[in-house]
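chain below, 649 aa
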Amino acid sequence: MHSFAINFLLRLALFPTCVFLLLRYLCRVQKLARWSKLSETVLVVIAAAVFTVRLTAPLAYHIIDQVPWSLVDGYFIAYVQAWDVHALDSQPLALFDANLLFPTKQALALSENHLGNMPIFAPIYALTGNSILASNVVMMATFFLSAIAMYLLVRWWLGNRWAAAVAGFVYGFAPARVYQMPRVHIINLQFIPLIVLFLLRFLRSGRRGNLVTFSALIFLQALCSMHGGVFAVIVVVAFLVAELIEERNFWTRRALAVLGSMVTVGAILLPLLLPYLKWEKQGVLNTLNSPPEVFSATPSSYLNGDSELYPGLLKRFRSPLGDYEKKLFFGFLPLGMSCVGVAGYLAKKRAIRSQVLGATTPAEASKAGDLRAVLALGALISIVFGFVLSLGPYLHVGSVVINLPYHWLSRFLPGFHAVRSACRFGFIVLFGVAILAGLGYEKMLKLVGHFRPFDSTSIFAALTVALLFVVYWEFFVDLHTVSVPIQPAPEYRFLSSQPPGAVTLELPTFSYTNLPTAIQSDVTPIEFDREAAYVYASSFHWQPIMNGLSGHVSPVSTEISSLAVQLPAPKALYALAHYGLRFVIVHTNAVPAEQREAWHSLQATSAVTKIASFPDAEVYQLRDLSKRLQDLRGMGVNSMPKNMNRVGE
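prediction:
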């Protein structure tokens, strides 16, 4: 605690002092208030890049071969994006037929597809062959791009660069984003501020170019992640409601045009949505199957975080179940500034409304009304929507259970199951808080400028951003990374030399029948890490593998996993042979000695043969189908796998 206090005070003293001296120099030499747009753009980009690199350390310093927090998500998301590149290059029409969880078809639709990350991921992966490096760049880019996007929204709407800087910093680097770093599909929400920007520009001007840009941004956000697509739709609805409330239905036709453009985007995305809708129809993508207490937020979740800056305070709000999903703290400073923004909106609401009601045309209403009112109200409605949805499907009031909107949307709205955890709707709350923090900070700057004119406003603003940086730094200091292999092990080089279609199973593995118990633990089982490592390793050979894990599980995958854990039992081997299994990789450093001996003994039956041996693995090949089935029947194994007729799922 003593060393922490010293380090924090040093940062608190040195960083703002450096910013202060720099701003004093800029104010005198370059006349900050008269900066050109180019100068401002360069400064914003550089600042966002510096903040991203420093706040994501040590990941930024080990970007080639390490992943943050979780091996499971680090491995899996790197694999999915590598599969996208591989499939788009070799078999684009079979994009969703990923090589994991064989023989499940369209297995990629059991999780996010991350296609929107390809403009960043694909060039790096193509040049280096390192999916970990490319995935980490995508992850860090979400912080950088989100901050800039929010800056552009607030800068255009308010015209205040420092209010925009605060809003961008909060949205881009809030502590809640740190905890979700490995799950890039949750935090790559960089297009949502731009979606709102062009939505409001279209509603104000009616120009078709703004509507086209709005539609393109919706499309890109949905490609990045289904989470982002759902969040974007909710935010758009919130701002449409705000616009209609503030402007008294002046823009009904334009609002209908916006809704029509969103339907058009949905139709364009339909080929990519169909696999998800298929799984949803079969009940596999069903968010209501998960225990609500694991993935539903509570009001205290928005004060849940880890920081030595508030020793013992935030830890009081930790959850015994699913805590890794329920850390939704945004920081006390942003929350305070957002409260100032709300107070400013409510104070002006009556005066603004009287001006708007006195207008007779849309142009007069736009001129009379305060543009800040729509932005503030839209942010408030977004916060309400996100908060209520984050509470999950049910609300317990004594002995009474109330069905919340999440419950009804999960039951009746196609595609809503993309958001597997209700807690994640808290990022819509973050979006609204960031906007209101910018609005509140603008009020604070005006107050400072009233008492201290000339350049003191800029200095105060710079020091505030510096203070936010120091405070947020405390949430990143515990960020730890884990090393991962970026070169294939010899057994995977062996698989890559085999003809395509060599179905493989790696041992040891685990059964999906134990998954409901495992997901309720905050400690990721080592079996999950190992299974994710198998999936990642398959990107070095792309052979079909029966191993795998995903956000959801198909019936065939459950059947396969329950058989795999029984190996080398003849009955299990017989069933997996029917599924097309050809190779079994036994990791000798991870399986018990008696299981290794059982595999050696099994060779005497002629059902399998060891064809390769490596320092930490042995590769067994099942003989040709007719021969191995005959041998297994001779051992008294005759039953067929019960899900054999569902291989085509």
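The longest strand covers residues 608-614. Confidence is low (pLDDT under 50) at residues 29-33, 352-369, 516-523, 635-649.
thats it, cya
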